[in-house]
């Protein structure tokens, strides 16, 4: 019996040794695979960083000095968005997807851009350096970026409320009432933001001015957003971009972006604010053509949103309509001059007052 017990104990010990050995080997295999995956991810992360011009950006930031711009790590972005959980999405458009996230206790908006063409790598890096210096109360601040993903991630300040597009929809559905003063103030703030972008030493051409890209704070202060993939050099030939109804007809001829194109789109927004109508009707008749006819035959009052029409407002509405007319109907006369765009913004501000 003693011999049997000894044999059983010995057999159990041998079994334990083998189980432990196989367990250890299994753990080593798993750890080796994890390390291999980790190394592969690090290599891929570095490749993406180089591919998007990360090294160039670092060098340019050293030359520029303190630009107040942060290069975020991949892990920070993944944690902040919970690995890009759909529940964090607050907006989607032609240029990318926007996520609401929190980094170091601050709520931010993370925009996942479309992939950057290799030929535009230098342009993209230069634009980031310029964009991070843009500081205006009516422009969403670019805080930093992460270049360690397949597509660049841009990190912006987060604006908590709604877009002008949503506000206009609420107005059309009579869910809320937006006064003429509020509408013109939003127009003035938007125009001032665009004028600022156009007046920089390296002018930034927005290229997709529309209500969905104008964010509104809780006090309905306008903040132009989503300009992280805009064009800085107006001589650059760009691929077709923009939104039907807001596109300058001149741009559709050569796909060459100019400051004038942004002025035209701003004019469409101003007409939309005055009339409460969409830029394209179901009959595909443009709001600008309807506006042109109304201005020509003196029937503008019929086109205006009835909520803002009264005797006290007519003079101001007429001034705003003339400004809109200059932007969308006679836009060819205004060329590309930045001072004319600034003048347009000043006019809008005066009308608002």
From TrEMBL:
PROSITE patterns linked: PROTEIN_KINASE_DOM, PROTEIN_KINASE_ST
InterPro entries (UniProt xref): Kinase-like_dom_sf, Prot_kinase_dom, Ser/Thr_kinase_AS, WAK-like
TM regions (residue ranges): 12-30
GO process annotations (BP): cell surface receptor signaling pathway
Stretches assigned to the Protein kinase domain: 84-353
Gene Ontology CC, one term: plasma membrane
Gene3D superfamilies, A to Z: Phosphorylase Kinase, domain 1 (3.30.200.20), Transferase(Phosphotransferase) domain 1 (1.10.510.10)
SUPFAM superfamilies xrefs: Protein kinase-like (PK-like)
Keywords: ATP-binding, Membrane, Nucleotide-binding, Transmembrane, Transmembrane helix
Keyword Hydrolase: no
GO MF entry, a single one: protein serine/threonine kinase activity
This protein's name: Protein kinase domain-containing protein
Species whose genome carries this gene: Oryza glaberrima (African rice)
């Amino acid at each position: 019996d003693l011999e049997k017990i000894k044999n059983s104990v010995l057999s159990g010990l041998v079994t334990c040794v083998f189980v432990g050995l196989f367990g250890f080997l299994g753990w080593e295999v798993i750890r080796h695979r994890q390390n291999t995956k980790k190394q592969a991810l690090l290599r891929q992360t570095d490749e993406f960083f180089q591919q998007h011009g990360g090294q160039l950006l670092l060098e340019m930031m050293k030359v520029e000095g303190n630009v107040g711009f942060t290069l975020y790590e991949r892990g920070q972005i993944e944690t902040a968005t919970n690995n890009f959980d759909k529940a964090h999405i607050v907006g989607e458009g032609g240029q990318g997807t926007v996520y609401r996230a929190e980094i170091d206790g601050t709520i931010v908006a993370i925009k996942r851009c479309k992939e950057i063409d290799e030929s535009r790598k230098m342009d993209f890096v230069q634009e980031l350096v310029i964009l991070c210096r843009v500081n205006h109360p009516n422009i969403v601040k670019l805080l930093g970026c992460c270049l360690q993903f397949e597509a660049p991630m841009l990190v912006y300040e987060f604006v908590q409320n709604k877009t002008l597009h949503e506000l206009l929809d609420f107005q059309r559905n009579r869910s809320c009432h937006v006064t003429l003063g509020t509408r013109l103030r939003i127009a003035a703030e938007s125009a001032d933001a665009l004028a600022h972008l156009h007046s920089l030493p390296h002018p930034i051409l927005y290229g997709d001015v529309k209500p969905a890209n104008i964010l509104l704070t809780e006090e309905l202060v306008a903040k132009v957003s989503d300009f992280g993939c805009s064009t800085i050099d107006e001589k650059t030939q760009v691929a077709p971009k923009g939104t039907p109804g807001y596109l300058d007809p001149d741009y559709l001829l050569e796909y060459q972006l100019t400051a004038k194109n942004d002025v035209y789109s701003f004019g469409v927004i101003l007409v939309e604010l005055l009339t409460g109508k969409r830029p394209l009707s179901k009959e595909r008749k443009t709001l600008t053509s309807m506006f042109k006819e109304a201005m020509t035959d003196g029937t503008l009052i019929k086109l205006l949103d009835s909520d803002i029409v009264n005797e006290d407002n007519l003079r101001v509405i007429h001034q705003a309509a003339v400004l809109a007319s200059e932007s969308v109907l006679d836009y060819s006369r205004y060329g590309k001059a930045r001072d004319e765009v600034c003048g347009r913004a000043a006019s809008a501000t005066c009308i608002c007052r």
